[in-house]
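Recall that a protein's primary structure is simply its ordered list of amino acids. Everything else, from secondary elements to tertiary packing, is in principle encoded there. The following example makes that idea concrete.
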Amino acid sequence: MTDGITIAIVEDDDDIRTQLAGYLENEGFRVVTFDGGAGLDRRLAARPAPDLIVLDWMLPGEDGLSICRRLREAGGPPVVMLTGRDEDIDRVLGLEMGADDYVSKPFNPRVLLARIRAVLRRAAGGSAAAAGPASERLSVADLVVDLAARRVTIGDPAIEVPLTSAEYDLLHCFVTRPQRVLSRDQLLDWTRGRTADIFDRTIDVQVSRLRHKLDAAGSQAAGQIKTVRNAGYILAAPVTAVTP
């Protein structure tokens, strides 16, 4: 799955940047490296954009969180954040800024590689797409979810709701399994697969982010994703197929 895939590494530590680039190249990826946000911005402007960005949190000048937020606002590539900060609140902050995943320093390159591959699968359709027919368009409340295009719209004329790949995958789980309680373990498995940690609570963060994005778009669906105490979450609204 690495053929033609370009990974951008934004890391100011020369040793980490060089070693990680060599490791990913040996795994078959194309790699471009930058020591800060300015170089990355030039590459994004020149096109083509990389398929995924490995982004260090602590950078001189503009930090990784600020860069990540800008990328999300512009609809940029998926981001895996590298961070030496291992507190839960820091992880939550990184996810809220739009990171698709994070890896704490010092890290095992194999762990980072697994996270990269999982995010790329999600961005390409991955395991979440396998839950339903690829050509189907589904309606829930005032949203239309196009499973083939991985696109969520609201209203007429349709306005796209900007979701990260992780947020879309979570919504996909709900709309393909409506009115059914889904446990956190199930949601982790369906959205992150084998890279999920049994103590990982990022599903709660992702659900909160998804609700916020839908609410910001003015969608009634935000209030239909309900927490079931000691059980998980449920999409309480019915889902119907949209005919062509």
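DSSP finds nine helices and twelve strands in the chain. The chain has a mean pLDDT of 83.
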